Amino acid sequence: MTILHPAYTILFVMLILFSFQEVYGNSEKKSSLSVWLVGIVMIVLAGLRGNVGADYPVYRTFYNLYFPTIDYSELIDKMLLRKNDLEIEWMYVMLNKFVFAFGGPFQTFTIVSACISIGIKLWTFRKDSAYPVFSALILLIPGYFIADSGHMRQALGMSICILSYQFIKERKLGWFLLCLYVAYGFHKSAIIFMPAYWLVTIPMNSKRIFYAVIACIILSPFQIYNLFAGFLGSLNLQDVSNGYNGYIGYEDKASSFMDGIMILNAFLLVMYDKEACQRVWYYEYIRNIMVMGVCLYFIFRDNPVFSTRLVGVYVGFGALLIPNIIYGMEKVNMRRFWHFFFVSFMIFYYFVFAQYQGKAGRFTPETYTNFLWNY
Description:
By secondary structure, the chain is mainly α. It folds into 2 domains: 1-188 and 347-375, no CATH class; 195-237 and 253-330, no CATH class. The protein contains 21 helices and no strands. It has helices at 6-24, 32-47, 56-66, 72-79, 90-101, 106-128, 132-148, 152-169, 173-186, 196-199, 206-219, 229-234, 245-253, 255-271, 273-279, 283-299, 304-310, 312-315, 318-328, 332-355, 357-360. Helix 6 (106-128) packs parallel to helix 8, helix 14 runs antiparallel to helix 16 and helix 16 packs across helix 19 (318-328). It is globular and about 60 Å long. Residues 241-254 have low confidence and may be disordered. Keywords: Membrane, Transmembrane, Transmembrane helix.
């Protein structure tokens, strides 16, 4: 039986125990200590990893050899959307060059990247989730491993999109667009989040959610995304090397598993919409974003790259949605049942991930290394 490295396993157990404290506790006050304790562990394990995660060697080479040769004028041209030959997003290169200018090795950049991407998500969970640590538990597999500990460009872009949710709530379009611009500078796929500012205001209810999901499931075999092949191809979702291919292979084979997760999300959205709307502030906004994610997943289902990475920023809001739905349930026993259900599911997912993506990403005991204890 394959397991993840003991450090990850300890983190996983911590998240489960703290989530029980949140759901079963009598206090309405959120614990900042538990959130930032697990946050520090997550940042250390992701930020100080060595040769772990997809494309790590390639990005390390780029950091040391390629990015220092790029002139700032090229980045400004890219930033102003002028024609240029630079393939990698300007904001990601800029952050690399900024860290490199202080003479830090590549792990200095990975720790900075982890602080930004993980810190923003945990700050958002602390602010907008009824159960912040429970949100972190749901994020852990697979988002934390594949994005924050692997595809750093997309992790940074997605985190800025999640940050933009604050301006969606406050209806500050200018600040929202600025966030999207920065997120796009980290990863082009962030542009798909642009409609979110207006989507959140669309009136929805259980019936509309049900019909929308069913319609997208029916449309799935027709591959209607091919109508937008030119635009989608311009996003260049494939990473700079073949490191991502190992993940894609497993995700493609396990599409039925992802189907089940999306159907479960849709079930919760339909069944508990009214209760959550009554008890959770701005739940309707999170709900609409997640409905969009589920619908896009089924539309892109036959393309393993689009269905996992292009819709990732929408589906990532599941870490906010699920805890808030559970909090919104009136009956305490029902709340505890669903919490126990998702904890059990995450334990099952732990072993599935360890067996497949865990090996490919070097997160297992025999492959994971960290600069705190291996160098």
